[in-house]
Structure prediction request, 428 residues.
Amino acid sequence: MQTAAKKEMTNLETIKGAIAAKIDSAAFTSWIAPLDFDISGNDLVLGAQNQFSADFISSVYSNVLSAIAAEFGLGLKVCVRTSAPAAIIANDNAAAAYAPAAQTAAAPAENAAAFDEFVACDENAFVLSACKKVASGAVSFSPLFIYGASGAGKSMLAGCIKAASAGRAILMSGGQFVAEFTRSLHEKSVFAFKDYCRNCDIFILDDVQALSGKRASTDEFLQLVMDLRAAGKNVVLTASGAPNNLTGFDRRAQSVLASGLVADIAAPNAHVKRVMLRRAGVAADVVDAILPRMASDGHVVAGVVTKIKTYAELMGAPVDMDVAQRLLADTLQKAKTPIAMVKSMCEKLGVSYDAVCGTGRARGLVMARQTMMAVLKGATTMSLTEIGRLVGDRNHATVLYAIAQVEKAKKTDLVLAAQIAQMISEYK
Prediction:
């Protein structure tokens, strides 16, 4: 009898090894390894922790599992465990078997509570309306995929949706989802983790790009999106780029991410930055002084507000223009005066400002001088005469000839063309 039991155990290990060789390692670890393997009569019996797991394995892996079982002369049965385990295990699918780690309890931007805290420009009216619709209940465009540059307000909108949700909402960052999924695998509570994520009305994932290159986490999340959508639940995703521009995701993943409503969010414009600063109590004259030198980044605006408020609180004095200029010198962009642009280009091109303004005719110096003229023409509204004055009092005809030479050179020198395009973009 002992011999028979030992032989059966050997067969089970052999079968499990054969399955592992046929299935992706991440999928095997997530779905197959936690199953109870047994041989009953002429069948290989796989005991799952719950009905969801049994249904998923039957629909996705039944062909490969049946083929391997047949190699050993067995049929296949996938069922839910009915016998109680000898000891309490971590993935028994009990409600208390999984709880989010401490860092997921306070989700990003959750305190940004109401939608009226989000200052929207005209370009963002559409995405704001979509977010309000999702928060109010079921919609027909799940998932809502919001993308935009850092500081545009994606995380704030995610927090607003959670706070305004009529039902239960779960908000995680992409990094937190990866960490929690990995932890659930290690603690053998993966099925409880799946149930936790699905037990909601709205699931919000901030920074989808954090899943890039993490195949097991991506597969798990895509299945979550499809399950929630099939159940009539809403999904909200934010990312730094549109689905088809995200790297590290295969075509299927990009397709699922783009299967709902994809909306871009614009960076804060001058009006939005002004409203944000004035709401924070920054004096109007200070706002006028610093606004032209502030980057279009909500994080930068928030940092400026915090710095001004903290200074006023600690020093017991209001922040005037002089104090603001000194206090924010490390945050505000330097003024882009024409002379400052020329001197900056001198550093980039490796020539001295005096040489550019001089009469030297060395080939490299002439090319640098002509390049600066072309960049100033593309990046500013200055006249040719004004450009000529900046580079050693050159006349209108000289500047016109220089720009024509650069345009001609750009057609055959792609490196020069790219360099000029980059500088024009930087100095605009």
Notes: Confidence is low (pLDDT under 50) at residues 1-7, 84-96, 103-113.
